[in-house]
Amino acid sequence: AQLPRLGCFPAGHYAGLIEMNGDKLNPCAIIDLTDWAELENADGSAFPVTPTKLRDLASGDFSKVTSSLNHLYDALLNDGVVYSATAPAFRYVAALLGDHESRAALTPSWDGEKFPLRGKLLSWLADVAFDVSIEQEQRIREWGEYSPTEPFPDFLNIRSIYPEAFPGVASYFDDSDPRVVEAALVAAVRFLESPALAMHRRRLTPLLENVLAQSSSERHRSLASEALASWEQGRMLMEPPTDPLPSDGRGKDHNSHDKRGSVDEPPF
Hints:
single chain, mainly alpha, two-stranded antiparallel sheet, two-stranded antiparallel ribbon, 11 helices, 4 strands, globular, disordered N terminus, disordered C terminus
């Protein structure tokens, strides 16, 4: 069955940040080309409720948007459990956030002083990314005594979306609302677990140090601290060791105080 179209937008404005096929991030295309009847949410078949709720996120109608936000958490991320319909929903939310023409729909007048809708959507992406992280997957394997090699397909499907979803999240790093900026940074940190996005860690380091690490939220400060330590460790592991006594005998001895080079040279 064909769902009513509630507004279609061109491919994400920030798609140029990472090489990708722009069609993947077209919100309407994601909904229209997904076979929702073959997918499940917490209540069973994802069709027709999930695609309808996703479209309603950009409706501007308070009751519909509220119901759709509840659906994201109750049916697609139920108590930290993801479903086969979660991946395309994740892709759609990321597409909606990154789409230039949808910005007005994501800043409804009824937001007021509440936590903005765009911040709520960024937080949902971050929550999903946390629940499908490698760390969480390892915990589940230990709790359930799964084989270490047993794949979690739904986790892998969602993690594979990070590179194409990252530009939309990054477009909120300069949002006018500090709460939205922090929500975007939290999501970005979760995404940067992906090796495909490792080259962005150095660029995000100052934002984490100056924004997230200074947050009033203890949880955000802790996340920034953990991420910065992990990224620094990864950077050091990627740097080639230096030979204190080069074989040609022309190098400085091990007591030399000369600098090894600029710390700004990217390690990736």
